[in-house]
Amino acid sequence: MSDPAQASTTEPAGAAASAALLEVAGLSLLLEINGARRPVLREISFSVAPGEAVGLVGESGAGKTMTARAIGRLLPPGAQAQGTIRYRGSDVAALAGAGLRRYRSQVAMIFQDPRAHINPVRRIGDFLTEALRTNMGVPAAQARDRAVDMLTAVGIEDGARRLRQYPHQLSGGMLQRVMIAAALLTGPHLLLADEPTTALDVVTQAEVLAILDGLRRESGLAMLFITHDLDLAAAICDRTIVMYAGQVVEVRASALLHTDPLHPYTAALAAARPDITLTVPRLRAIPGRPLSPFEAPPGECAFASRCTHARDACRAAVPGLVALDGGLSRCVFAHQLRGQLQVVPGG
Amino acid sequence: MLLATLLVASFVIFAALYLAPGNAIAALSGGRSLPPGSEQVLEQRYHLNESFLAQYWYWLLNALHGNLGISITLRENVSTLIASRIWTTAGLVLYASVIILVLGIGLGIVSGLRRGALDTSTLVVTAVSASIPAFVAAIALILLFAVKLGWFPALGNGTGLVSNIRHFTLPAIALATASLAIVARVTRTAVRTESDREHVQTAVSRGIPARYVIWRHILRNAAIPITTITGITVASLIAVAAVVEVAFSLNGLGAYLVQAAETKDIAVVQGISLVLVTAFVVVNLLVDLLYAVLDPRVALGSGPG
Amino acid sequence: MSAFSLAGETSAPGRGLALLRATGPAGIASAAVLAAVVIAAVFGPLLAPYDPNLPNLSLAWVGPVGGHLLGYDFEGRDVASRLLAGAQTAMLGPLAVVTISVPAGTLLAVTAAWRRGASDAVISSGLNILFAFPGILLALLAAAVFGASLLAAVLALSAAYTPYVARVLRSAALKERSEPYVAALEVQGAPAASICLRHLIPNIAPLIAAQATILFGYAIVDLAAISYLGLGVQPPTANWGVMISENQAGLLEGYPLPALAPGVCIVIVVIAVNVLGERLFEQAQAARR
Is a pLDDT exceeding 60 seen at residue B305? Predict the structure, then answer.
């Protein structure tokens, strides 16, 4: 897990790429919103190595969920995607039939609001065993046993009884654990976790995250962890990708995100989070509001209008990704600003 | 709740006698002149000398025992007269319900799952057909299928099962037309709504084959609102059947009710109304029961709010 | 796109027109059709080319000929003229039903919503019991008791529809009741009736309009059915439902037009009402979001 430098779009699908479990290259996405085609993702590229936990961070509307849905082949009808997504070397978009179902059993997704994402009129047991029975041909009794074991692993005792219950009989925290259990039952190699703890209270959040993290490490599962919370991503993931307005603006080892960020946006995000140990005269919010990808003015840096370091060069063209100290930054002045962006406590 | 409806309805039906202009005897006889002595008989039979509530009580008690009084015009027991006609109405409503269930729900499901030309044409057809009242449909059907094409008879009950079915086909279609359209539309909306739900996304993301997703997640969940609208619709058929029976000269309860209303045969009107309202309440009860089976979140006795 | 986001529309007729415009081409077309029928209803007898009530048995069942577009009915009266005359009862009856049941239902709904608590519980239990009761049954009962007439039918239908209206409006009224501006007005000491009349009801007005339109459609069908059965409008008054039943015998004898034509009129009007009602309902939903 050394070099977080990511594969460029021109890298040949060969030796280096075969090490990556998931490779996203030049992913651009257009969606139909209110009858018009709008860009939602712009040239997203990154990779995830086997067993690696990568965070995907950004504000609402930055495109994180769409990225995950593109990877999971869950895009809404009318979506136009360009670029490639490769899983173990195969083009995900080209999968169909049995190949697609196998892919789905290997790349599992967990969602933000478990109550909305579990069928309320069917039992928990059905939810847990459905994929095993219908997609992987596991006999019902065996599937049930596996489900009970997995429930124990996520911290739900008395699994046999729980299998017979309905979702409305369980709390949000328990449902999210059930969701995790269901995702892990098919033995996936990659987990796409879309803000799995946002809908939960803080205490439950910690519990669920601990379970998730533990299970992941145990089984060597790779994970793409989506969140708007920079610190959360840093805590769980080895590497973090920061998105803004549908673009990747920074890729960095999580440990260095606060101490040595490479992009002004990352620094501003980190600075904006109130520190419980400090008293400051005024909360540091980023001026302006987050832009959706289709609101960002074309031909310039999307963050320029809110950036304190912005200069003319920022508005001249869309900045490319600059490799720096093992990370990446989409800032024209990445080199110059290096070392000046870190968060100064109390300042 | 439903029993309350029944009680209140029976009260209204009974009280109608009292709202009639003139005294009770005049209402019972429909304004006809009565042979001497029958006034006393009527007074006794209907306990007319006692209080309003007592009379209501006697009437209700009698009704529960199957004694619904005597028809002034036909001079027979109302219960007998009802019994001979109830199967016509029941058969008609059943036949129409089957049409609605099969065609209405079927069409709704198909157009809900597919988008495109089929869906748009379904919307247009149902918009028109929902606006065709049963008696207008009856006219059109008689004209086309009975007169011009001669495939079905235009009037009457027929004798024997096969003949009955032939005679009841056009009436059942007429009765079903408007309701079919409504059920199809609501079904379509329900299927669409369920298809867009997040839990369907989850199922797809797990690689569950499409046919399972459709049956176990979309249709299974859509069954709830579909049951509601079907229940409401079938219950309403009970009243509209009267119109269709008249249009096709069928010998059913509805037609008889209309006749009795015209001739002011109050006892018959009350008796049949009571039977029809009871049927109405029973259908609603069945829907509630079905609901509790379909939706585990609902406690029996509360219904879908 | 909410009808009320159209800037500058604050007067009631202005908002009404804005609401109408927002219903789209289908809604406007339907409104136009309805307007035409209303004109026929009001001026029908004057517009009719021939006397709708003058029987002439020697001309019975004669088909379309000369200036008689639709021929003659079973009593030798001009069908087209009778259709125009029939527009009156076709619109008047339902109008009366809606005029009675919508205000009554609104009153019940707002009262239940305003008082909440026990009053609401009582009213809404009552509504839950009554709302699905078929109007036709009540009308038959009324005809038996009071004698068959349009008035009896109208009253019975109004009584049957009121709980339905009240039930639908109650939830909207409840939501509106809990809006902050209502609490603000209460705190300022405004009397309940004033708040309801000047703020609460106008804010659910689009929903009320949509419901009234939908109910109008139901009333047209129910009243026509009751008249068809002979228990509503009485012949020889021209009425589309009555015309169908009078001329039904002609179907079997090869004279379909006098029975078919009123049926077509009914269907066209009901389609227009349904389309308009649906569009208005959509607008009401959009405005409340």
Answer: no
Higher pLDDT, C49 or A128: A128
Alpha-carbon span B208 to B196, nearest angstrom:
16
Lookup result for tokens 């990747």: A248
Q: Does B205 touch chain A (CB under 8 A)?
A: yes
Whether residue C236 has a cis bond before it, omega within 30° of 0: yes
Nearest to C277 by CA among C202, C222, C206, C203: C206
Strand-pair partners of A250: A242, A329
The shortest C-alpha distance from B113 to chain A (Å) reads 14
* Tens-digit pLDDT profile for residues B237-248: 988 999 999 998
**CB neighbours of B131 closer than 8 A, spacing ≥ 6?**
B178, C217, C267, C270, C271, C273, C274
Distance of CA C104 to the CA centre of its chain: 15
Question: How confident is residue B299, by pLDDT bands cut at 50, 70 and 90?
Answer: low
pLDDT given at position A34: 77
CB of B154 within 8 A of CB of B148? no
SS3 B252: coil
C146/B19 CB distance under 8 A: yes
**C-alpha dist (Å) from residue B26 to A6, A128, B18, B70, B202:** 97, 71, 11, 15, 70
Residue B77 is given by DSSP the state: B
Which regions in chain A score pLDDT beneath 70? 1-18, 342-347
Interchain contact A113–B (C-beta under 8 A) = yes
Single-letter amino acid code for the residue at A250: E
Residue B232 in this model has a pLDDT that exceeds 60: yes
Cβ contact C202:C141 at 8 Å: no
Residue of B nearest to A133 (CA): B208
Q: Is B204 on the interface with A (CB under 8 A)?
A: yes
- The answer to whether the Cβ–Cβ distance between C148 and B261 falls below 8 Å is yes
* Burial (CB count <10 Å: 0-12, 13-18, 19+), residue B119: middle
Residues C244, B135: C-beta atoms closer than 8 Å: yes
Which pLDDT does position B297 carry in this prediction?
A: 79
Of B58 and A40, the one with more pLDDT: A40
B131, B147, B154 ranked by CB distance to C274: nearest: B131
Which residue, among B115, B192, B205, B214, would best test binding to A if mutated, counting the most A CBs under 10 Å from its CB? B205
| Residue predicted with more confidence, B31 or C256 | C256
The CA distance from B209 to the nearest CA of chain A, in Å, is 7
Does B5 sit within 8 Å of C141, measured CB to CB? no
Contact B207 A119 (CB under 8 A): no
User: What digits encode the pLDDT tens for the residues A68-93?
Assistant: 999 999 988 888 889 999 999 889 98
- The answer to which of B68-72, B94-98, B301-305, C42-46 has the lowest mean pLDDT is B301-305
What is the Cα–Cα distance from A144 to A212, expressed in whole angstroms?
21
Q: What is the mean predicted confidence (pLDDT) over B170-183?
A: 91
Question: What is the pLDDT confidence band of residue B174, given thresholds at 50, 70 and 90?
Answer: very high
Closest by CA position to A85, among listed A104, A72, A66: A72
In A, residues 48-107, which contact B (CB 8 Å cutoff)? 72, 74, 100-105
d(CA A263, CA A307): 10
Contact status, residue C277 vs residue C210, Cβ threshold 8 Å: yes
A131–B207 CB contact, under 8 Å: yes
Q: Which DSSP symbol is given to B101?
A: I
Residue B60's pLDDT band (cuts 50, 70, 90):
confident
What phi, psi does A319 have (nearest 5°)? -70, 145
Closest-CA residue to A191 (of A237, A248, A135, A231): A237
Alpha-carbon gap: C187 to the closest alpha carbon of chain B (Å): 32
**For residue B199, what pLDDT band results from cuts at 50, 70 and 90?**
very high
The alpha carbon of residue C151 is apart from the nearest alpha carbon of chain B, in Å, by 15
